[in-house]
Structures are given as C-alpha cells and as structure tokens.
Design a protein that fits this description.
Strand order of the largest sheet: 1-2-3
Strand content: 5-15%
GO biological process, one term: DNA recombination
Organism: Nocardioides zhouii
Helix content: 40-55%
Number of domains: 3
Distance between the termini: 55 Å
Number of helices: 16
Keywords: DNA integration, DNA recombination, DNA-binding
Largest sheet: 3 strands, antiparallel
CATH architecture of the largest domain: Orthogonal Bundle
Protein name: Site-specific integrase
Oligomer: single chain
CATH superfamily of the largest domain: Intergrase catalytic core
CATH topology of the largest domain: hpI Integrase, Chain A
GO molecular function: DNA binding
Length: 420
C-alpha cells in the first residue's frame, strides 16, 4: 500500500542534535508549492532550537508573492494582507480610504484577538448586532467589510467558509419622509437668503454660493460632488434650454483638501442632462467671468469648494428654517428630484437621469448613443420645484412602480463608491 501524501503545510518529526556549543533542530516540510523542503535552525539550547524551528515552520512563505494565510493566522494578519491587495485594486481613492478607516476604527478592534478559525458565525452575529445598536449604517458597512475580508481569506484557502454568510440579515429602517415638501423647500430658500444678513456680524459677508448650490441640486438631482465639479465648459446653453454634462466630481482627500476628480463615481454617472430654467439661471449668473476649466463654485483661492463646508453651511440654513432636528440633508434634494421624475416619467427614466446603471448599461453597450437630450425631466422639475408658483401635483400623487427601490439606492450611495 502506497504511503499517503504529506498534506500541504505538514512537517515530520523534529530531529535535535548538538554540534559544539550549539544545538541543531531540523525537519522536512511540504511547502505551499507542494515541494518537500529541509528546514534547519541552530540555537543555544534544545528547547530554544525547537521553538524557533516551529515558529519558522508556521511562518513559511507562500510562493505567490504574498504572506501566507492559514486557519491559525490572526485576524490582524488577514487585514494586513487584504489592505496590501486593496492598494492595487482599481477603486476610487476615496473608497479605499473609507474601507481603511472603517476597518481600523470598527472591525479590527473587535476581532484582533482571534485567529481566523476562532471567528465563528456566532461571534460575527454578536458583533453586527452591537454595531446595529449604534447605527444601522455602521452595521451595514461593517458587514460589507467582513464579507470582503473573509471572501479574500476563502480565495487564499485560509478558511473553508465565510462566517458572515449565516448571520441574520440586517434590517433597513425606513426613512421618512422620502422627499422634501414644497413648504420645506420654501422655508430653506428663505433661510438661505437671510443667512448671516444681520448688520454688525463679524467676518466676511456670505457670497451666496451654498444658496445657489442647493438650487442647482434641486433642479438637477445631481450628487453634491457633481454639482461642485461643474465648469463653464460643461454647460451647453441652447435656445431650447441648458444641458449640463456630468464629467467629474469633487471629493475630499486627506492631506489634499477638496479636489476635482476627472470622472464621476461610475460609467453610468457620465451623462448629459437638461437643466430647468430656475437652476439654469443660477449657473449662467455664476459662470460669468469664470475660466472655462475652473469649477463654477470655488473657494477664495480658486480651488473647488469643500463638500464638508457646503454641508456645514446647509445645516445652518436648516436651523434658520426651524428644521434643524428634521434629519434633512443635501441628499434629500436628490431624492426630491428623483421622486418628481419617477412620478412624471417612470423609475427607469429617473434612474438614467440620476446616473444609475439600470438602463444606462443597456444603452451604453447595446444601443447607439443618442446625442439628443430629452427636455421632459427638466420640464417636470421646473413646474414642480420652481421658486414661484410651484405645482405639487407630482409630489402628492401615488408613488411610481419601483420608486422605493430607486430611493433606497440613493440613501446608500456616496460620491466615490460604484453604484450597484
């Protein structure tokens, strides 16, 4: 009967012998490439030699250029190798930094004491429930990262199953209301117009940029970073109305501040959309005297506006409108535009307008691109959301088919992450 093959990573008995004042410990191991190799160490004592040899056997390298991951590897080892792999992935830098921050702050501290084999479904379940008690968003992000980490471990044969797979699905709390009301829009507009207008206030007078940004957000349903990235060269002002090309986004980078990224978050996000007149008039006025390649909304030094500063000023507007505790954010402007278009034209039209991939993938790969831009979405947005005599007929009607799924996708997106 043939002798059974030595398993990968297994080693034979350790032979110990003395040579002069040193002790030699040696054995043979079947390495990750399937080859048997002789491993030898020397030390002052027999116990020390055997300990050093065993450490060297455990930490044998793989032959693919990365650190070996085994069932007995620590969770910190997995994170280290996964972060090295993340660095070479074709993802937006903001997405990578977000993953690094989430792992460092929330995931690694919870599992750092364990080896991979010790991280069970029950331990992951307990962790996710503790995260959900703090924030449903944090729990979802932690689950996503654990799935990425253990998926990586599976591909490297360090574990036999993903312990995240058997955990209880996370509940998605419903966010209400879904869109801004015309009363809320009017109150925020008034607060924005009056912000820091009292006589005698210290500091420079407001330049009105954030007030104008929210008008463009309302009229285009763009992401905040997409509006901040608009340049005069992205606008095509035609007799039939303005068309805006979405070609980039503004993101915040550690150590760099706000920068214009010359691509939006996904291929589907590269689009041309009609702009209703109330938003087009803002862009025309703001573009006067601005260089073609500079962002229309800019800091005093000429660089892009920081999304953080825009959000901070917007929160001041909410306080002035007595909406400080309402939970409203700039994202609600995108929800509102999505709701108007979905109810006026259907959810597929809204998805394409918003830069989601539902219909854009088919159009981009199987249908010749149509250079014309349908003005209908802008007409719906103009009639519903204009500052003077707005018509709430679309906002009060029954939700469109698949509208909830469309708006739920908006709630989970960021400027950097790919749209699923």
């Amino acid at each position: 009967m043939a002798r059974p093959r030595t398993p990968l990573g297994a080693y034979g008995s350790i032979a110990v012998r003395r040579r002069g004042d040193r002790v030699i410990a040696e054995t043979r191991i079947r390495d990750a490439d399937g080859r048997l190799r002789h491993v030898r160490v020397t030390a002052r004592t027999s116990a020390q030699a055997q300990r050093v040899l065993r450490e060297r056997l455990v930490n044998r390298p793989t032959f693919g250029g990365t650190k070996a991951l085994l069932a007995q590897s620590t969770f910190a080892d997995l994170v280290e190798v996964w972060l090295a792999d993340l660095a070479v992935q074709q993802l937006a830098e903001g997405t990578k930094q977000n993953y690094r921050d989430q792992v460092r702050l929330h995931v690694l501290p919870a599992f750092e004491p364990y080896t991979l084999v010790e991280i069970t479904t029950g331990r992951v379940e307990w962790f996710l429930k503790s995260q959900a008690a703090i924030s449903s968003s944090r729990a979802r992000q932690s689950r996503t990262l654990l799935n990425l980490l253990f998926g990586f471990a599976l591909r490297h044969d360090a574990v036999t199953r993903n312990p995240v797979a058997g955990t209880t699905p996370l509940r998605h709390p419903k966010s209400q209301p879904r869109a801004l009301t015309l009363e809320q829009i009017a109150a925020i507009r008034t607060a924005a117009a009056n912000w820091r207008s009292e006589p005698g206030l210290p500091g420079p007078k407001p330049d009105g940029q954030v007030r104008d940004i929210i008008e463009v957000l309302l009229g285009t349903a763009m992401r905040t970073g997409e509006v901040l990235a608009l340049r005069p060269c992205d606008l095509d002002d035609r007799p039939a109305g303005m068309v805006a090309a979405v070609t980039g986004t503004v993101v915040q980078r550690k150590g760099q501040g706000a920068i214009r990224q010359d691509r939006p978050k996904s291929e589907a996000s590269i689009r041309r959309i009609p702009v209703p007149e109330f938003a087009a008039s803002v862009l025309r006025r703001r573009s006067i005297g601005v260089e073609e390649a500079r962002t229309i909304f800019a800091s005093r030094t000429g660089g892009p506006l920081s999304p953080y500063n825009v959000r901070r000023t917007f929160r001041d507007f909410l306080v002035g409108a007595d909406l400080g505790d309402s939970g409203i954010s700039l994202r609600w402007y995108r929800r509102t535009g999505a709701t108007v278009i979905a109810r006026g034209m259907g959810s597929d039209a809204a998805a394409a307008f918003l830069g989601h991939s539902s219909t854009a993938i088919t159009e981009g790969h199987y249908i010749e691109r149509d250079p014309t831009v349908d003005p209908t979405p802008a007409a719906h947005l103009e009639r519903t959301l204009r500052p003077v005599t707005p018509d709430d007929a679309l906002l009060v009607q029954v939700a469109a088919a698949q509208e909830d799924a469309l708006l739920a996708a908006l709630d989970h997106e960021t400027d950097d992450d790919p749209v699923s």
